[in-house]
Amino acid sequence: MERTRTARAPRRSRRVRAALVAPAAVAVAAAGPGGPVVWQNTCELREEPVVIPQAGRTLHGVPALPARGKGPFPLVVYVHGDGPVDATHDTFHRPLWEAFARSGYASLSWNEPGVGEAPGDWLDQSMDDRAAEAADAIAWARGRPDLDGGRIGLWGAGQAGWVLPEIAAKDRGIRFVIAVSPAVNRHRQGRYDLLAEMRRDGASDAEAAAALRRRETGLELLGRGAPYEEYAHSVGDPKGMTAARRRFVTENHTADASADLPALRGIPVLLVLAGHDVNVDTAETGAAYRRLLPGPALRVAHYPDATHGLVGRAVEDSPVRLALTALCAPRALFAEGFLADQEQFLTTVDTEGARP
Q1: Containing domain of residue 114, as a range?
Q2: 257 contact partners, CB below 8 Å, separation of at least 6
């Protein structure tokens, strides 16, 4: 069976989400207006919900501008990974937006289709659809007087690793890319993910071998376009792989960033890798980026104590600590140095010119 996330949100979202549900509301109840917990959950940003009509689709977005100034501000455009993610990623993005705002950058994110009031269904999207969606958002941003259309870069995590290079290949105006925990080849990522999770959960060699056999069966069925009913019967227990999720996997299981990654040559690229990533083989990803993007424009930031979502491992592994950190110090959810390094990268980008 091709190992993917189920129709629910990805692991980081599921585990961290419980700690991030309406943290500001909880904080107000716990500390009262103006208290230290409320302050910790207040980011120095100006957020504005917008509806972006472009090319026959409607995006429900949130531009987050620096707290002061009129602009035009350079812009970071967010490309989501897997799952039904809203514009703020359940507030998880706000500390990042704040860090970028300190470098003078605005941020732009939007709800996945079917999330909130956004029309559509994210499970109906291909990676090409996501790239087109981002292109629409960028076109809209370039028409805003408070945003600098000549200084736009991309930030993306997880599945966005298959989308970011495609966007940059089609838009020569992209100035930089930040790729967080990206995979390169979908099939190899799926195999790694499966085995890493089984090792983490203490599975036996026999259990791992059986899971690999089921995976190979699933891949064979994908290759010949077998219907969902045959898939469910053949693997025995789909384990959350609904018909809709299977449709999404069928559309995207051949994703591979290798062909488009060379389009990033000549612009600053920050590759962010975690030391405890059970979703992505960071050794393979790092090697592929270094091979396909030779030269000083590629910078690799590795966080040994971080999980796939760049949350500190000790924080994510403790539900109590995770919830308290999200409530009292949300910026501390991230691995040490991560937010500062993101901010510093944008500061250095401003000293470099556009790609040739």
Answers
A1: 11-188+253-349
A2: 161, 162, 164, 165, 182, 183, 184, 185, 288
